């Protein structure tokens, strides 16, 4: 789980994932989704070094433990690699077969969505949730490489995204060697593991990313968080 953002766009004095949402930090909601899933073993939380005390506090107050904290890098790409390297020995040993990558700033993701993404990735290699958006029709075709229904519309991609673990780790190591910086996990896999199919899974309108201040207001009043 990626919690390495700075909160700049939201205008808060701290990373948005530590701001309160319905009485607990955004991060606590995001972690709760995955902590309770029987299909999920290890949970690795990637944070900025200065945020480590805040992250440890959230874990102590809002989880039953077992979350592994790793310090990320300057970019999303580096932070994902840091998280994957934490799992590398377990991936190499075959103890971790697939990895879900999630933005901690998406606290309304449901277990149902995560389960369907994970199942699709295990079956096919990779999976990404997305919403077809008519209003993005003039934008760059980011969703063009996804396998699935292909109406003449583009996809607004969400997380969690999931991939089989070994090709994912290999792709991120190769990307690091090339200095590649992607916008999400799928963009790295499309570039460095083009043979891995990426299955489109229907996303969830409620699964918003907290980016701007008004997103927190929307999340406060969204449908009930379905995980706890
Ligand atoms: C991956 C993502 O959630 C897809 O919508 C989004 O691109 C993440 O953006 P961030 O700026 O890295 O938080």
Topology:
Layout: E1 2-3, E2 20-21, E3 24-25, H1 26-35, E4 43-47, H2 52-62, E5 67-71, H3 76-92, E6 98-101, H4 111-124, E7 126-133, E8 154-157, E9 161-164, H5 165-178, H6 185-192, E10 198-202, H7 213-221
This protein binds the ligand C[C@](O)(CO)[C@H](O)COP(=O)(O)O.
Ligand LQXTBERG is lined by residues 5, 76, 103, 157-159, 183-184, 209.
Structure description:
The protein has one domain: Spore Coat Polysaccharide Biosynthesis Protein SpsA, Chain A (Alpha-Beta Complex). It has 7 helices and 10 strands. It has helices at 26-35, 52-62, 76-92, 111-124, 165-178, 185-192, 213-221, and strands at 2-3, 20-21, 24-25, 43-47, 67-71, 98-101, 126-133, 154-157, 161-164, 198-202. Helix 5 (165-178) packs across helix 6 (185-192). The protein is globular. The chain starts with a strand and ends in a 7-residue tail after the last helix. It binds the ligand C[C@](O)(CO)[C@H](O)COP(=O)(O)O. The ligand C[C@](O)(CO)[C@H](O)COP(=O)(O)O binds at residues 5, 76, 103, 157-159, 183-184, 209.
Give a nutshell description of this structure.
The chain has helices at 26-35, 52-62, 76-92, 111-124, 165-178, 185-192, 213-221; strands spanning 2-3, 20-21, 24-25, 43-47, 67-71, 98-101, 126-133, 154-157, 161-164, 198-202. It is α/β, with parallel strands linked by helices and 228 residues long. The strands form three sheets. Strands 6, 7, 8, 9 and 10 form a five-stranded mixed sheet that branches.
